[in-house]
Each structure stands twice: as structure tokens, then as C-alpha cells.
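[INFO] parsing input record for Lysosomal acid phosphatase
[DEBUG] input buffer:
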Amino acid sequence: MLLAEEMNWEQALYFWKSIRPSAILPRINAVTRRIAMASTLALVALTVIASLVRSGLIATQNQEAAAHLVPVEANAETLVYLQVAWRHGDRTPASPVPFSPASSWDEGLGELTRKGIAQQYRLGKWLRARYGRWLGNRFDRSEVFVRSSDYNRTIMSAQANMAGLFPPTKSEMWDDVLPWQPVPVHTVPRAMDKELYEDISCPTANAEFSTLWRSEVVTRMETENRGFIEFLKENSGIPNFEFRQLWMVFDNLFCMLQHNDTHKWPSWVNASVFDRIYKLYDASSRLKYHTDLLRRLRGGPLLKEIIERFEAKVKGRLGDKPKLYAYSAV
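[DEBUG] output buffer:
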């Protein structure tokens, strides 16, 4: 995951403008000025869903790095509101391929693994170490709201994260041997989730993406890598393999790499082959947000919601109670 916690306001605005949700930029600037003028309001922590701008590999690397960082305790005297979002922990492949059949993954396809559960639990403990004094020891239902996209892996990631963030105090224990308490995780159907489901039906975005996929950008990418694409076609075993299916090869190889104690790459894959697949996947996955229109339609709704919640907190519409709003996504 990517942390934007220590940004100054100029850096924060540059980040927002790089995504360019033009309809809300004037409001972002207004909120920024209000927050900058408030002497008791510190820059809140914001963890950006890495898949909005980068590939799963970068997301996982940053998530692992964040979970192993020595947390610096937040200033409980100045912090007033926290919004945080994380990508799910390590999972199984989303779609099977001949060299990695569905039967080889006990959890099923696209599901959180034990490693992914442990990652999220550690991340929750990291958040506890950083924000625990400010959040308090007890889980307060009126202070915390957790929202997940409608996938098993993201809902389970949220549950594991909350287990690390809110271990029960003695008075909250309900079982003598299980140091865990349930924390509500809210979700909405994917067909309605324009904030966290990046592939929600949007005719305008779909048309823009289809046009982009037929553009010179993609044609050049295919031409420059024609020989390598043929190599993948011959070895992957995917029938009628084409460039659009590169993500399936990368996804399976990456999941196998993350679980290499039980899954091994096929003989035609080595570090240099994987590196080239990753670079191609990374470049092609960026196409989802390649134009201003795609960034606005696919990333804008979430940014808009985050900014509006900041604005509501600044103006006092949220009241004093709410402290943490968490997103578990992708």
C-alpha cells in the first residue's frame, strides 16, 4: 500500500491533481485552505489503494513494507480524523491457466490465503501501534466504520485487519481462550459500488477504454514485444493466447511466487522472464487510468467521497465521535 501520511499540502494537492478528478478539484482546494488554517487539525493519514495507480506487485510490496515498518506513534493531540484504505492480502489466482489449475489452490480462485490473512493482521497491529493511543483501547462502534468491496478476499482482509487493530480488552473478552472480537464490516453489491469496484458498468468508461486498446499505444506495445508474446503463446498453454490475456499469466505467476513453499513456476519461467512479464503487465494495467476521462470516471468517485468526508469533518457535520473510516478494496 502507499502511505501519503507525511505529505505537506503542496505535495498532497499535486497527488490529487495527478489523478485529475476535475469536477472536485475546486472543492479540494477549498477544503485544503480550511484545514491549513485550523491550528489544531493535523494532516490525517491516507492510505491510497495502490491498484488504482499501480499493479498488484507494487501494492503487495508496499503493503509488506508498511507492515514491517517500525510505527511512529501519531500525535494524539492534533490528529482529529483518519481515513485509511488497504489492498487485500495475498490471494490465489483470479483465473486458472493450464500451468496453474484451479485444483492446485485449496482456497479456490481469487480467495485470501493464510499468508494474506497474516499480512492483514500484522497491518492491523501496525495501525494499533501508530494510532492506538488516539483511538483508545476499546472498540467504539460510534467511532469506527469499515467498508469493504464485495469480495470474500477484501471482507476477510478487513476482518483480519480489525483483529490486529482492536484486540479485545479484558472487559470485552467473551471467550476465555480466544482473544478476538467481531468488528462490523459493511459492503454494497458490486453493481452499485462505484467507489471501490473499479470495473463497475460505465458505458462511457468502457467506450474510452476500448478506443484506447485499439490505439497506437497498445499497437506499439504489441509490435515491440511480438516475439515475447509468441513465446508466451507457445508456453502458457492458454488457447488462442493474445496480449489482452497477459494479466492471467502474470497473476498466476505472481501468486505462485508469493506462495512458493507450495507452488513452483513451470520450467519455462525464470526471474528474467517473470520480470519482463511484470513490466508488460504493469504498462498494460496502467491503461485503465491512462486518460483524464478514465481517471475521473474510475478513480474520481472514491476521491470525491474521501474529500467530502474530510469537508464534513472540517465543517462539523460529522460531529465529534467519528474517528476512523477504513476501506478494504480490490
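[INFO] Residues 1-59 have pLDDT under 50 and may be disordered.
[INFO] shutting down worker
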